[in-house]
Each structure stands twice: as structure tokens, then as C-alpha cells.
Design goal:
This protein is mainly beta and 182 residues long. The chain has a single domain, classed as Jelly Rolls (Sandwich). Helices cover 5% and strands 41% of the residues. The chain has two helices and 13 strands. It has a six-stranded antiparallel β-sheet, with no helix packed on it. The chain has a five-stranded antiparallel β-sheet with strand order 9-8-11-6-13, with no helix packed on it. A hairpin with a 6-residue loop joins strand 1 and strand 2. The chain is globular, with a radius of gyration of 16 Å.
Length: 182
């Protein structure tokens, strides 16, 4: 696997080795020893899988307690995946990074605790899978507004269209109201 640094401190794009032939492909999506050798000793405790249709935007989510690190990937379709740094002590506080993750490129993104995370589906549908370093804790879940002008994420939403949002995501907090991490 290749671990490529992104413009956000501590966020990495992970590119697995893919072995393919006319029958299909094989890749290793998780190997504790490989990740540990690259400096990531990750205690995953929960795996999640969601399916979303084109135009759905999920996020930007995080938890103030039971903060989760997430190793995210797409196993069918394509999404534009986004992370926002919420750590006061970070030189990239308030900055965002986006990457297309797809079943074709097999990329994964390591999202450490202290970041908001979300994605926008660019294919007919997408299966999104992720491993978490802590449990889902609904009382501490926060949603940063996907369209906050301070963060100013450049989502690949076609001109004149609006994303499909859950009620919770439609009421995301403005940057100035969102709790940050030390």
C-alpha cells in the first residue's frame, strides 16, 4: 500500500496494490501489520456500510465524544469525499480536502479523529464502507453545514442543482457555531 500525505495534516490517501487479470481483481483493504509499519496503529471497533443514490450528500459529520478515526472507501460507484480539520492546534484548522473515491480507483482515505467528514455521490449509486476507531455515539454527533461559506467546500454539484440532504444534514451548524477540538 502507498500512504500519500494530503494538504491536511494527518490525513492520508491510501492506495492499495491491486492485482487484476481477466477474471477480476484482488486487493488488501486492511492489514494491521501493513498499517502499523506505516505508522498507523489503529484499533478499529466498528465497520459501517451505506448505500446512497446520485446527488445525495452526507455530512459533514463528527462526534465531540467517542471521536472516531475512519478509514473510508467506496466498493461500488463513486463519491467526492471531504474532510475538514476541526483541531484548534492544527496549522490546517478550518481547511478542507476532497478526493474522488471509487470502485475503480480503489482509493481509501484515513480520516483521523478531530475532522468533520462527508461525501457527495457522483455515480448512479455508491456503496460506502468505513472502519471506525470508536463506537457511534449519537448524543455527541455534530453536523457542520455542508455549504458553510467560511469553510467553502467546492463540491462537484452540477450547476443549478441542490444535493439531497437528510433533515439533520440540512440543519448543519455554521463554522462559528461548531464545536472544535483542542
Amino acid at each position: 500500500m502507498k500512504f500519500e500525505a494530503t494538504p491536511l495534516q494527518d490525513v492520508y490517501l491510501v492506495k492499495p496494490r491491486v492485482f487484476g487479470d481477466p477474471r477480476g481483481f484482488f486487493l488488501e483493504s486492511w492489514n494491521a501489520e501493513t498499517f502499523r509499519a506505516a505508522g498507523f496503529d489503529l484499533p478499529f471497533v466498528q465497520d459501517n456500510h451505506s448505500r446512497s443514490a446520485r446527488g445525495i450528500l452526507r455530512g459533514l459529520h463528527y462526534q465531540t465524544e467517542h471521536t472516531q478515526g475512519k478509514l473510508v472507501r467506496v466498493t461500488s460507484g463513486e463519491v467526492f469525499d471531504v474532510v475538514v480539520d476541526l483541531r484548534r492546534s492544527s496549522p490546517t484548522l478550518g481547511k478542507w480536502y476532497g478526493e474522488y473515491l471509487s470502485a475503480d480507483n480503489h482509493y481509501m482515505l484515513w480520516v483521523p479523529p478531530g475532522f468533520a467528514h462527508g461525501f457527495y455521490v457522483t455515480s448512479d449509486y455508491a456503496d460506502f464502507q468505513y472502519k471506525c476507531t470508536d463506537i457511534y455515539h449519537p448524543p455527541s454527533e455534530v453536523c457542520l453545514a455542508w455549504d458553510d461559506p467560511t469553510v467553502n467546500v467546492d463540491w462537484p454539484i452540477p450547476h443549478g442543482e441542490l444535493p439531497q440532504l437528510s433533515a439533520k444534514d440540512a440543519e448543519g451548524l455554521a463554522w462559528g457555531d461548531a464545536p472544535l477540538f483542542d
